Amino acid sequence: MIDLHCHIIPWVDDGAESAHTACRMAEICLQNGVDTIVATPHSNLVGSRLNYRDRLFTEYFSMFRALLRQHDIPLRVLPGSEVFAHSSNLRELLQEDKVIPLNHSRYLLVEFNFHTSPEMLNRLLRMVRAYGYIPVIAHPERYYAVQEAPGLALQWYDQGYVIQLNKGSLMGRLGQSACETAQYLLSTQAAHVVASDAHDTRGRAPGFRSLLPLLRDFCSPEYIRDLLEGNPFRILTDQNL
Ligand SMILES: [Fe+2]
By C-alpha distance, which of 139, 161, 87 is closest to 117? Predict the structure, then answer.
């Protein structure tokens, strides 16, 4: 399996708090049958490192890969980021090529402030598209606009944007509304990917083993394979979904 969204690199955001935690997270991935992850630190988020596409970011990424090698952890880690999109500087970031898409593909993982209006969400998503990227919308079920009107996420699906649900939402760890919205999007087959959005080894850990029984309640075996493997693979190899 492939985990497309994971805060596993230590030192760069509110994810893994130490090299030790990061290694434990990587081991949990492997124990759960996840052999490939995309490291997606928060980017453009105030209060965190900005994690734009630059030499320093490349160094952090290489250091993390070296750390796994040192500890003989054979997890395949690919580069990415989770871009916090807001109107004050998204255009500039796209214009100046500062964003880090998922494994150098056209697919860009984007997140928003939970309170963003539907109009602004649509405007920002169109902007991402206009610069040649395909938005992968991180945890739409957590945004209030989608919780109030889940049809918004169905429109995004129809527009060719990628819908990525969080494991924690589906399991009810991120609030009841997020849980209900995520389960609704699964039941309508409007989700493309389920990812861990892991930050640690406890409440927000990687791995999908604990999630599988719930997925089986909502999805066919073929759909589960698409969510956890097929679609993430297509994204990382820059194919259409
Ligand atoms: Fe995240």
Answer: 87
